[in-house]
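Example S7 (structure tokens).
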């Protein structure tokens, strides 16, 4: 919130307000990195359960990860990107898979 300061002059009283510019929160990309051990069907399942992709979208993104080496799976506020990244990593490790997840500022 800005400060309001009153300036008195002979002719009029002038109110001046300092403006504070509030920036929109940053957006962060969640990126899956391809590996040789994590099964494609597991990646599709994660994309559907955690990232709420449709089956078609999940298959498309999974193929992008596989063929391009990495792909953006979603863009969120930092807190949500971090939470989804942690959930994915825990689920992958609990199933014995080394799926790597990165977060980058958009």
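Recovered sequence:
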């Amino acid at each position: 919130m800005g400060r309001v300061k009153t300036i008195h002059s002979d002719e009029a009283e002038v109110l001046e307000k300092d403006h504070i510019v509030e920036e929109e929160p940053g957006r962060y990309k969640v990126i899956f990195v391809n590996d040789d051990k994590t099964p494609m069907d597991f990646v599709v399942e994660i994309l559907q359960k955690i990232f709420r992709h449709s089956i078609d979208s999940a298959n498309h993104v999974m193929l992008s990860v596989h063929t391009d080496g990495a792909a953006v799976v979603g863009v969120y506020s930092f807190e949500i990107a971090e939470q989804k990244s942690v959930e994915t990593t825990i689920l992958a490790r609990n199933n014995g898979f080394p799926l790597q997840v990165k977060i980058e500022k958009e």
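Notes on this example. Strands lie at 4-8, 13-17, 27-33, 70-77, 100-105.
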